[in-house]
What does this fold into?
Amino acid sequence: MGRVCREVQDQVVGNCNNIQCTSFTNCNSIQCTSFTGCAWWNVPCHVARGVCVAAAVIARAACWVARAACDTAAALARAACWVARAACVVAAEVARTACIVAAALARAACEVVNFVLDVIGFIVEVILSIPIIGGIIRTILNWVTEIIWRIVGIFDFLASLAGIRPRKKMYFGVIVPPITPIASDADIQRQVDATVAFYDQTCNINMIFTGICHTDVSPPAAGLTVGCDAGGFFNDWLLTGSYFEFASATCKFTDSFRRIIGLGAEIIVFIVQNVTPANTNGCSFGSTHNWVVIEALPTDQAFVAAHEIGHACWLLHDGDPANLMNSTTPTANPTLTNLQIAVVRWSKHCVYI
Ligand SMILES: [Zn+2]
It folds into this structure.
């Protein structure tokens, strides 16, 4: 039974049985109690007594009639009450069923639209996997969408800067190439946990992790040893970038259209064997890509992924050794400045819905 009907029943029509006639209950007590001691010779007294008794009989009869009418009215009111209650139950069930059906239809329509958008996103990403031309379009698209959403989000940025930071969210996932050994799931999870905890506590961002995907797409050599320099940047327009884009399209199909429009685009953390130059264990080219790369070795500290995601959200290096964005990522309890927090929250990856 629906909630509304249950409450109405409890509070209003649940008391149908309480509808009773409570009047005219003492008809038999209507008696003539006067002129009871008339002397035998007192004729007027006897006449008055007779009138009194007759009047009492008539009054009793009238009382019984009124009582019957009262009972009938109460019975009718009870019946009407039961009918109203039945109608209420039926109406509530109809409303509830209609609500469930409408919700299912809306959900199905939403899923269909989302799937169609994802298929379109997948096709676009496959096209963007074409070396050189796809790579150049990808770079331009990612920067243009970033700049557009930064312009749209300028007031949110200013609010963040002023300390007004309602909860936002950011999606991220991990893709592991089909090379063994490259990184254990435990070492990857350490990076994931540190990222989730850090952005939650520092920026009030809910980092939603979409899981570790083991891709079947084999990377070229430059996709396993990534140069974090100009060479690495331009490699991304060649087969290396094709690998990252195609593996993203196939591994992270759901909501892929968001990587095309930019808003709420999932950040993908690719696990690689090595990042050069030496002593570098992660890399990001800012808004150029929707992905960052990390080594995720057991010896890496936990905040490499969080640091690279910071770069993907436009953070530059910071001189403070305790800052997450120090070129040597802190090993514990990293910090961000007020401005850095506002810049991250302003990123196209970071959204309210
Ligand atoms: Zn860095």
